[in-house]
Design brief:
By secondary structure, the chain is α+β, with helices and mostly antiparallel strands. The longest helix has 51 residues. The chain folds into 4 domains: 66 residues, no CATH class; 106 residues, 2-Layer Sandwich (Tetrahydropterin Synthase, Chain A); 44 residues; 30 residues, no CATH class. α3 packs across α5. The protein is elongated, with a radius of gyration of 46 Å. Helix content is 50%, strand content 24%.
Length: 272
C-alpha cells in the first residue's frame, strides 16, 4: 500500500506529458482557413507542399502551424487624400476585395508574413490611386470618369499584388469628395450644359415641325395643281351626271328635273 503513491506519481506525470504532447501535435483548421506548416528541424516554412486544409491534423509537437483566413475579405480606405491633374486635393473612399492565393500561402507567409494586408495591399492601393487620379481633372472625377478611374486602379494594383501571392478581386470607388467651391462650380457648369442641350433640343424640334408643315403644304399644293389641270368641263359634266343618277336611284328621294343651267346640268328639287 505504501508503494501506491510512488507508482501513481509517474503515471500522473506520464499522462500529463501525453496530454501536452497531443495538444501540441494536433491542430484544427476551421471553415475558410488554411494552415502554413513551420518545421522547426526541417527547413522552416513549407513552401513546396499545399497548405493544410480544413479539419483536424496531427503534426510533430515541435512544429508550428500558422492559420490564415483564405476567404474573400474587404479593407476600406476612408478619406484617402490625392491630387487631381491640376493640383487640387481630392478625397476618395475606396474598398478593396482580396484574399491570399491558397496555393502560394507558404510563399506569402515566408516573404510577407501574416500582416500582408498592411505590407502589400494598403500601400499599393494608395500609391496607385494617387497615380491614377493625378491623370484627371476634378470635373472628370466628379462626373463621367469615375468608372474608368475605378477600373484603372484595379488593373494596376492587381498587376503588382498578384506577383506577391495575393489575389485582388475588386476595387470599388465608394465616394469622391471635392472642395466645396469646386463642387459648386461643377454643379453650375453641368446645369448650364443641360439647359443648353434642352434649348438645342427645342430648336431642333421646332425646325423639324416647320419642315414637316412645309412638306405637307407643298404636297397639298402639288395635288391641287394636278387636280386643277385634269378637271376639264367635260369631266365635271360627267361627274355631275353620275351624281344625279345616284340620287335619282335612291328609294328615299323624289326627283324633279327641270330645265338646265349654262353648263347643261339638270337641276334637282324635291329631295326628301
Amino acid at each position: 500500500m505504501q508503494n501506491l503513491p510512488k507508482i501513481g506519481l509517474p503515471v500522473i506525470a506520464l499522462a500529463f506529458v501525453l496530454i501536452v504532447f497531443i495538444s501540441k501535435a494536433s491542430i484544427n483548421i476551421g471553415y475558410g482557413e488554411a494552415g502554413v506548416l513551420f518545421k522547426t528541424f526541417g527547413g522552416g516554412v513549407v513552401t513546396d507542399e499545399p497548405p493544410l486544409g480544413e479539419g483536424f491534423h496531427i503534426i510533430a509537437p515541435w512544429n508550428q502551424v500558422y492559420i490564415y483566413n483564405v476567404k474573400q475579405q474587404e479593407v476600406f480606405e476612408s478619406k484617402m487624400q490625392v491630387l487631381s491633374s491640376n493640383g487640387l486635393e481630392i478625397s476618395l473612399d475606396i474598398s478593396v476585395l482580396y484574399q491570399p492565393k491558397i496555393e502560394d500561402l507558404g510563399k506569402l507567409h515566408k516573404t510577407k508574413g501574416e500582416n500582408y494586408l498592411n505590407v502589400i495591399i494598403i500601400p499599393q492601393i494608395r500609391a496607385v490611386a494617387r497615380s491614377v487620379v493625378g491623370r484627371y481633372t476634378p470635373e472628370q472625377l466628379y462626373s463621367t470618369k469615375r468608372d474608368a478611374i475605378q477600373n484603372e486602379i484595379f488593373i494596376e494594383t492587381k498587376k503588382v499584388v498578384e506577383e506577391q501571392y495575393v489575389q485582388l478581386n475588386a476595387v470599388l470607388v465608394r465616394d469622391v469628395t471635392l472642395p466645396v467651391t469646386i463642387r459648386e462650380a461643377i454643379g453650375r457648369k453641368l446645369t448650364q450644359e443641360q439647359e443648353a442641350l434642352e434649348y438645342e433640343f427645342r430648336l431642333e424640334r421646332a425646325r423639324q415641325e416647320a419642315e414637316r408643315q412645309r412638306i405637307d403644304a407643298e404636297g397639298k399644293a402639288k395635288a391641287n395643281r394636278i387636280l386643277s389641270a385634269s378637271l376639264t368641263a367635260k369631266i365635271l359634266q360627267e361627274k355631275g351626271i353620275d351624281a344625279t343618277r345616284q340620287i335619282s336611284e335612291s328609294p328615299n328621294s323624289k326627283v324633279i328635273i327641270i330645265g338646265g343651267g349654262e353648263s347643261g346640268m339638270p337641276l334637282i328639287l324635291g329631295n326628301q
